[in-house]
Amino acid sequence: MLHNIITHCWTNQIFPSSWKQAFTILIYKKKAKSDPSNFRPITLQPILAKVYSSLIRNRMYCYLLDNDYIETKIQKGFWKSISGTIEHTELLSNIINNARIKQRQVIITLLDLKNAFGEVNHDLIIKALEYHHVPEELKVLIKNYYNGYNISIGTEDYTTDPIAVKKGVLQGDCLSPLLFNMIVNTLIKTIDDEKIKLMGYSYCKSLLPRHWFQFADDSAVVTSTEIDNQLLLNVFTKWCNWSGLMIKVDKCSTFGIKKNGSSSAQFKPYLRISNEMVPPTEINESFEYLGKSFSFAMKTNNIKSKLTDDLASYIETLNRLPLHPKNKLLIISKYVYSKLRWRFSIYQLSDTWVIQNLDSLVKEFVKRWLRLPQSANFTHLYLPSKMLGMKFSLPSDVYKSSQLATRNILKSSKNEEINNLYKLTQTKYVSEDVILSQSQPRKPSDRLVKETVQKICNELHLLQEQNSIISSITQQCTAHSLIAWQRVCESLPENIFVFIRKALIFSLCTNTNLVRWKKVISPSCNICNAVKQTQLHIFNNCSKAISDGRYKWRHDSILKTMCHYLSQLIGFDLFVDINGFANPTELFYNLRPDIVLLSPNEAITIELTCCFETNFAKSRAYKENRYSNLENDFKLEKRKFKKIFVEVSSLGFQPKQIREFKKLISQNKNINISRMLQKMSEVALRATFYIFTQRGNKWSNPELLNFI
Fold this sequence. Notes:
Layout lengths: L1 H10 L9 E8 L10 E6 L2 H20 L17 H18 L4 E6 L10 H10 L4 H11 L3 E5 L8 E2 L11 H16 L2 H4 L14 E4 L2 E6 L2 H18 L9 E8 L2 E5 L4 E2 L2 E2 L9 E3 L2 E3 L6 H20 L4 H22 L4 H19 L25 H18 L3 H9 L5 H9 L5 H18 L6 H9 L2 H13 L2 H11 L6 H6 L18 H7 L1 H6 L1 H17 L6 E4 L18 E4 L3 E8 L6 H11 L13 E8 L11 H7 L7 H21 L15
Parallel strand pairs: 1-4, 16-17
Antiparallel strand pairs: 1-2, 3-7, 3-8, 4-5, 6-7, 8-9, 10-11, 12-13, 14-15, 15-16
């Protein structure tokens, strides 16, 4: 239906009047609210209008590009597959550095247009279409689009009647950026001449000098002399007079470098636009173009200070919020880093500075939120979920990724000049360029992540204690089960979540650790007086905890959870070694497995073990040996007999051998297998957490946990 409607409109060169009604809201920016210029208009178009105008834009862009009617080396705003801001800022940085180091003169003038998009005369749009030889049918269609276009402006209190748009490209329209670029392209084509280019600054013998930068309406004129810069300003002034656009001279600026004795120095060029002097950049001050600060020395001290202050402000604000630690880490990764990434991309900061100033700040708060001791390993958090990490990057990781992305943009650019810039600056970015040389063109970041993960794994390998659980579990469990385990952990309350993250790297407050941290004198167990109260001891090996039934309580809580789901199996009677079920002792002479599933033709025994994370193999071998004669101990005859062993670690991990159990219950579609396994992990985690918190207290024989 939509295709038929748009085909009809396209064929008949019409734009339905109902698609030419837009709604505008005003977003306050700053200063006095009584001044309309201090509000940013955001216009919402009908969805069908956006679809139609985007189709027009795509067709017209391909037509202009195929016929070489538009220039994409100087004008880089809004063009598809061109990272214009990066290409422009990197090239302008190189020009300034080249002039300063080689003691050459360069003059840069930034030009500012008053409300450029809003001041475009609609007749000028038609002239731009004619200049670019746009087919008559398309000109008529665009003219019809702009004819009779209305917007209504809404506030909290009222909405205006429709207001006819008689000037400016349309707000919020997919076609508007292309139309504006076509208007500016009439200027760019005028100055895109070899003789005029020679007026620019030459930074490379193999390429023509660079004389102009353009990004949408942001212009920068670059020349080697004031005379040439003034001539180009005169051209720009005449073009503005022709197009009806106004230059805001007081918002323009100029910047200069020249040879001064045996060195370079900044100076104030004297330039005029329409008899008004262009404000020069003060000595030792900077100017800003496309979001990047440029100065004579290209120092980044102010940028570093602002980065540090911004990051500190974000994190301190986050620290005051009553959020779960996993959400705080997620906000840092998704929101806070997005506020830093652009500056990481355009400024060359040292890795050492980022690590010492930004990483240290993030580490301080993350360790506080996860209640990790200062000596605890932090880098494992970077690892993916399947390796028991949280995919949490430090600022230094984001910085490396951003710098790599910038280098990849320069290397893969379709512009020969930008490719040449990549080669000219290779000595400054050795590590990034090595990665690029070893990666597929579109996946250098994957290579960086892979190398970082490998580096972390190598570091962890040297930490025998803090790495023992992570190393053991990642080898014995499937990636899928570890990702599911992570989801369980993230669903738990903050105190249990923090407990788990600390337990993974042996950073819990055991007496052994407290002695290491100089908090207590003796490492012995408080309830059984064992020589060392380690994490293994508290979780699984304390003799007093065994006699109290603490570990049996955890074991039976997991067993109860399993039985809730197993009771849904059709065709089996359920025997379980806990209260509330028929007991397996009815079926065996001496031995007593945890669970028996009994049908007229089959008997299946399930033996559950809740072991320490590094003891899966030992626990299974012990149970297999203990129940090796279980079939001979069975009272009933003429039944197929099967034994299944299930291990769930104290922290809820399930090894690869769990597939035997999964295969058994997958035969019955009544059971939600994933939920059952997740609940088994959850109960194990909650039980171990409670056992740990009660490590110095008298055991109260609580009821079995019930989380199903």
